[in-house]
Amino acid sequence: MDEADRDDAPPSGGASREAQRRSLLWRIHFWAALIATPFALIAAITGIFYIFTPQIEAGLYRELDVVVPSGEPRALDDAVRAAIRASPDGWSLHSVVPQQLRTDSVRLAFMPPPAAKREGATGAGHQHGAAATAATVEKPAAFLRPSFGLPAKSLVIYVNPYTAEVLGRLPQAERFNEWARRLHSRLLQDNLRWMIELAASWVMVMLVTGIVLWWPRGLQPVLPRASASGRVAWKQWHAFIGASIGLISVVMLTTGLTWSKYAGEQVRRARDALGQGSPRIPAHFKSTVTAEGSALSWEQALRAIRSEAPDVLMQIMPPKGAEGYWRANQLDRGQPERRFDLLLDAYTGKQLYYSGWEEQTAFGKATAIGIPFHRGEFGWWNQALLLVFGLSVLFSIASGWVMYFKRRSQGMRGMPPLAQGAWTSVSAPAWAGAALMLVCMPLLALSSIAVASVELFLLLRSRQAHRGS
Fold it and tell me: Are 182 and 42 in contact (CB under 8 A)?
């Protein structure tokens, strides 16, 4: 009998400990697939859609993002003034993304007034000048909030840096990138975010059990056999492709779970406990007000920032109040080694704070590389690899269900049979690994209670049927 057929055969009453464990692995693998595959299917399809965001946005927003170079760019202040004139009444300038390439437009993000945030109302008047600030008043904090790009609630105005012409404006939330990201991570609904996390947790279980089941032993083939056909061929290809993408799967699942609510919180607790948090920017810095009381212009601030920061697409936030400071950070996550955070005195341009790649912890560097990889932001090779990965996931899901229905059509049980004594055959290291996964992924722990309840019900019903016979 082929090894693949042995796994599908009902275990005998005197099954070996190895057979008991394998029957349990098959059962858990089945449960993981049953719970995760509907959402994993959606995540794979939307993920493939998402990784081609740069090409899609290049077609959708070319008139906003791209300009024709004409001589030398004008001072950044001209673009700021033009955007302020074109912004809605009461909206405040949050940040500016200056031109990086000669064909780039200048992007300026404006935030709504506090009344509009609470009631949908619109305030009156613009905030002018280089030190235009957000209208919201926040409680003093020990550290500044991390900045990961333009706020989703902002209105972005695009300006030609050569002519100071306003090219158009677009809410950041309506950019394809934002829409595709929300579709992939939360199905466009914040209250459905837990479903994606639940699916990712069970996919991790499916991956671990699948690799253990595939791991070569005895006569089990490593590569699919050309002579195999039917359900056996499907099974061999299902196992081989699933194991082949195992490393990428771990990276994708781990980086995805770091963004999740419950598992992500566990990751952040472990990170902080190990002292692996990213550098935090103290909020106590202040600019020294000069006798003239005039802050640097946007162009002066830009030149000062570029003299201190890596050559990368960046985001600049203006000073808030008389003692505020200029703040800048990297916007292009596809160059993690150029990651930086910078604070400059508003009047002198003197450096108040700086952290770069060297100041990042090992965990910070890992996430700075892993997250852009997950998003396909390292270029065409990254996109091609993730496309192959996504298609492989789709094949694994489809082949798993093909095998299930083939089992049913051949008169076998759809659910893998469980050998007597399977639950007591688990080794101590395996129990420890399972406990670690349950602690790290709270939704997995909660849903496992439901699965265990169903298994207990099936066990009791089986014993009653056996006694009745």
Answer: no
How far apart, in whole angstroms, are the C-alpha atoms of residue 42 and residue 179? 15
| pTM of the shown model | 0.84
Instruction: Find where tokens 């993690």 sit.
Output: 336
Instruction: List the domains of the chain with CATH numbers.
Output: 3-51+182-274+378-468 (no CATH), 68-181 (no CATH), 298-364 (3.10.450)
pLDDT in tens, 303-357: 999 999 999 999 999 999 999 999 999 998 899 999 999 999 999 999 999 999 9
By CB neighbour count within 10 A (0-12 exposed, 13-18 middle, 19+ buried), where does 224 fall?
Answer: middle
Residue whose pair of structure tokens reads 């991956």 in the numeric block = 207
CB 353 within 8 A of CB 281: yes
Integer angstrom CA distances of residue 269 from 200, 254, 437: 19, 15, 15
Compute the average pLDDT of residues 147-173: 95
Residue among 372, 389, 386, 383 nearest 55 (CA): 383
HEC-encoded secondary structure of 323-390: CCEEEEEECCCCCHHHCCEEEEECCCCCEEEEECHHHCCHHHHHHHHHHHHHHCCCCHHHHHHHHHHH
Pull the structure tokens for residue 150.
């333009």
